[in-house]
Every structure is written in structure tokens, then in C-alpha cells.
Amino acid sequence: MANTETALKEAMTAIDGAIGVALVDYTSGMALGLLGGGKDLDLNIAAAGNTDVVRAKVRTMEMLKLNDEIEDILITLGSQYHLIRLLKSRNTNGLFLYLALDKNRANLAMARHQLRSIEAELEV
Q1: Using 50, 70 and 90 to split pLDDT, how confident is the model at 51?
Q2: How far apart are CA 64 and CA 78, in angstroms?
Q3: Which pLDDT belongs to residue 90?
Q4: 90-100 burial by CB neighbour count: b if 16+ within 10 A, else e?
Q5: Among 3.40.640.10, 3.60.40.10, 3.20.20.70, 3.30.450.30, what is the CATH number of 4-106?
Q6: pLDDT over 90 (residue 39)
Q7: Exposed e or buried b per residue across 12-50, where buried means at least 16 C-beta atoms within 10 angstroms of its C-beta
């Protein structure tokens, strides 16, 4: 089992093209941990803003009466992928991993696979 710091370090080093990663509580919008980012990517703002995305999707699914779970939310920009993975493992209810990737260096399928593996090992 990996703690938050270890999981975020693994995401930044093991996932090709990783720009920044955060563990976010979508009930509060607060980042519980972040790594990477920089002047072009403020991870605190990204965490808060993507909380709104997650809440909107959860609300929409409830209104549609969809009896299903969100695995990932993908936002594709001109030069980046933004991947939001809602956590399902024990003690992670209400949390998501947010990963920003450089589109030119990333392999989206591998990033999704690796993020799932990181989630499986994460203990909050």
C-alpha cells in the first residue's frame, strides 16, 4: 500500500508525459496532495475547478437515473490531456486523482492503466 506522497511521486515518474498530479477531495474541492504543475498549471486551481466537473457529472448521472459509476473523465486540450479518475477503493470515497499530461509525450491508454494501478495501491 502506498501513501499519498508515494502515489503522486509514482504518477509523476512512471507515467510518460506527466505534468502534474493531485489527489482531490471533491466534497470540499481541496487538494490533499499535489506534485508537479508550475507557472502554466496551478494545481490548486485545477483541483478546485475539476471538482465542479466531477460534481456536475455525478449530478447529471443522478438526474438521468443511471445506475453506474464514473471511471474516468477525460478532457482533451490542444496540447494536454487532463484525466480525472474517481477512486473506488476503501477509504477513498469522495476522492479523485487528477493527472495532467503533455499530449505529445503521453500514451493515454498506458496513463489510464497506470493510474488504475496507482489507485489500487493507494491508502489514504
Answers
A1: very high
A2: 31
A3: 62
A4: eebeebbbbbb
A5: 3.30.450.30
A6: no
A7: eeebebbbbbbbbbbeebebebbbbbeeeeebeebbbeb
